[in-house]
Amino acid sequence: MGWSGDGKGWDKGYGMMPMYSMFPPMWGMKGKGKGKGKQLKVEDNLKVWLGNVPESIRWKELQEHVDQHVKSKWVEIFRGKGKGTAAVVYATPEEASQAISQLNGSSIGGQSLVADSWARGNKE
């Protein structure tokens, strides 16, 4: 039973399956197309950058705070390298610009938020 001696695969489906075929690759191998990480696929004019976000705040708390000003569609708090920052997505560019003016200087967790557009300005 198991592999047939002629090298053509399983003999009639009996026997044991090799262990490596039951599990996805786990030994430091990245799968096909997994090199860039997770990114928001949203137009930049719909996204708002938030800075000075307290580390103790969770995304749900931030979303509740943001929605008090302008209803958001998505909130993501960055950890690690982007610690203290967040991205908020809105339905229209008008809502995003309105949120920037209302959220800039608003207080959450004892800290004052900094709000700005997502797209970086030209460096001259």
Automatic annotation (TrEMBL):
GO molecular function: mRNA binding
Keywords tagged on the record: RNA-binding
InterPro entries assigned to the protein according to its UniProt record, in alphabetical order: Euk_RNA-bind_prot (IPR050502), Nucleotide-bd_a/b_plait_sf (IPR012677), RBD_domain_sf (IPR035979), RRM_dom (IPR000504)
Domain of life: Eukaryota
CDD domains in the cross-refs: RRM_SF
Alphabetical list of SUPFAM superfamilies matching this protein: RNA-binding domain, RBD
Record domain RRM: where: 46-120
Name of the protein in question: RRM domain-containing protein
Native organism: Effrenium voratum
